[in-house]
Amino acid sequence: MSHVPAAPAAEEPQHEAQRAELAQLIDRFAPEEGINESMIGALALMRGSLPSPIVHTLYRPALCIMAQGQKVVSLEDERYVYDPLHYLVASVTLPVTGQVTLASPEQPYLSLRLDIDPGEIGKLIAEAGPVGVPSRGNGRGLYVERLDAPLLDAVLRLLRLLDSPRDIAMLAPLVQREILYRLLCSPQGQVLRDIANADSQTHRVTRAIDWLNQNFNEPLRIEDLARVASLSPSTLHHRFKAVTAMSPLQYQKQLRLQEARRLMLCENLDVSAAGYRVGYESPSQFSREYSRLFGAPPLRDLARLRNAG
C-alpha cells in the first residue's frame, strides 16, 4: 500500500513564502550533513545533499516536516511519501525504513523532527476539552497529512526562537503546545488523541509497544503481553496489527535485528554474540532472519555498510 500525496492545488503566496522561510531557517541552523541538534531539546534539524540509501531505523513519536526535498518511509509493505506540502506523524514507536529520494548539493534535503510527548497530549486534552474533527485515518501509528497554514505558522515561530536563545525557555513550550493542538485538530488528530486516552485500546497497545522496546531480548508469550496491555490475546493481536502493521512477534523481531546490527557495527560484537545478546539462541535462525530483513547475511551486510561509510 502506498500513501502518496495527491497533486497539490495552487498555493497561496503567503504559504509559499512561509515554506521558503522554513527552508532558509533550517539551512542556516543545520550546517552539517545528517542530524543537527538544536537549542530546543525536542527539535532536531536534518540536511542531506544527496539521495540516501534505504536506512533501517526506529521512529519515536514525532512530527516530521520537510522544507525541501522528498522522503519515503516504509512500514512493512506500506509506503509513506512526504514533501514540503505534507508532514508525517509517528504516534508510537515503530521500526521503519527511510530513504531520501530527492536532494542535491544545490537543493539539499532539509527537514525537521519535533518529538511528541504523549503525556503532554493528555494534559492538553484535559485542559482544552474535546478538540478536532472525526478522523479519516485507519488508526495506524504512522500517517501523512497536508501541511496547512496554521501549523506551518506555529512551526516557523518555533524555529525563529533559535535566533533569540534567551526566549527559548519561556516561549518554546508554549509554541510546542500550540503545535500539538494543531495536530489534534487535524483530520487525523484522533490517532494522537487515542494514544493519550487511558481507556482506549490504542493506549493499551502503546503499553505493549513500550514493554517490547524494553524487553525485546526476552522470550515473548502473547498471553503475558496481553496482561501488560489489559487486553485479551486476540484483541491485542488485532489492535497491535492495526496500529503497527505487524504482529507483536514481527515487531519484536525487527527490534532484535536492528539492535543486533547496531551492536555489530558500533560495538564490534561478533555475529554469534550479537544474536545471543538480542535473544536468539540459534545462530542459524539469527542469520536467516537477519538476511531476510537486511538483504544479506550479517558479515556481508556489515562489510557493505562499512564500505559505504
UniProtKB/TrEMBL annotation:
<dbReference type="Pfam" id="PF12833">
    <property type="entry name" value="HTH_18"/>
</dbReference>
<feature type="domain" description="HTH araC/xylS-type">
    <location>
        <begin position="206"/>
        <end position="304"/>
    </location>
</feature>
<keyword id="KW-0238">DNA-binding</keyword>
<dbReference type="InterPro" id="IPR018062">
    <property type="entry name" value="HTH_AraC-typ_CS"/>
</dbReference>
<keyword id="KW-0804">Transcription</keyword>
<dbReference type="GO" id="GO:0009893">
    <property type="term" value="P:positive regulation of metabolic process"/>
</dbReference>
<dbReference type="InterPro" id="IPR009594">
    <property type="entry name" value="Tscrpt_reg_HTH_AraC_N"/>
</dbReference>
<dbReference type="Pfam" id="PF06719">
    <property type="entry name" value="AraC_N"/>
</dbReference>
<dbReference type="InterPro" id="IPR018060">
    <property type="entry name" value="HTH_AraC"/>
</dbReference>
<keyword id="KW-0805">Transcription regulation</keyword>
<dbReference type="GO" id="GO:0043565">
    <property type="term" value="F:sequence-specific DNA binding"/>
</dbReference>
<protein>
    <submittedName>
        <fullName>AraC family transcriptional regulator</fullName>
    </submittedName>
</protein>
<dbReference type="InterPro" id="IPR009057">
    <property type="entry name" value="Homeodomain-like_sf"/>
</dbReference>
<dbReference type="GO" id="GO:0003700">
    <property type="term" value="F:DNA-binding transcription factor activity"/>
</dbReference>
